[in-house]
Amino acid sequence: MPTANIRGATIVYEVLGTSGPWLALTPGGRRGKDEVKSLASRIADGGFRVLIHDRRNCGASDVVLEGEEAEYETWADDLFALMTQLKALPAYIGGASSGCRMSVLFALRHPEAVKGLLLTRCTGGAFACNRLAENYYGQFMKAAEQGGMQAVAETEHWRDRIAANPANRARILGMDPKRFIASFARWREPFASGADLPMIGATEAELRGLKVPTQVIPGHDRTHGRATGMRVGALIPGAEIVDLMGPDIDADLAVEAWDEKEVELARVTVDFMRRAEKKQAA
To answer: DSSP assignment of 16-69, as one string?
Structure first.
């Protein structure tokens, strides 16, 4: 599998398709690139080159457990550096949940590099902020407080990162627990304080300021409420809202339901990018 040294971290990536406009597609949570590989393959079959990658702290890429910026801001800058290396810019940028947040941040930080945005399962509201603050950061801070970095390494997510990339074990165990806790406290802050934003990581003014073709596909669970996606779509000028899932269901998270929609999701994504390409070529 190809790797690239990106701002001091080894990042694992894969490109599907051999010609056509570029799309970077990023999964939700801290899940690895294989989560979206099937969807990426369908989109590539529509005439695009699709980049999928394991973000730092995800999949088989390097673990880096500190940084001054929010984790999804670091992911956005990593992706920009990776796509620059691959000469893949400007490109369409898209993803679901945390991949959606990262895509918006990418557009805000690197607007010249974006041909269009594909935003799926936008995340916002008090429930999502509290749940994700704990899932991404709080539980690991507690582990470090109670058992040091050995306890962190034994949690499911970081144990899997070691299994995928054994060098990550030394990176995790070699970090001072106090530095780890301080770093994760900084990373948790945007989630702890973001309940009043239209979506985590972006203000109303920032969303209104986006100037690229955008497709928004709302989620339908308590973490990715339909109303959040609808609001984001209404704020971004000219955004197309595609309501694939309909009303919210009574579940914290509904990932499996999206697997059943993969063919349709690929179809609307390819159609959107084809229409955007025609407009930009006119």
So the answer is: E-SSSSEEEEE-STT--GGGGHHHHHHHHTTT-EEEEE--TTSTTSPP----SS
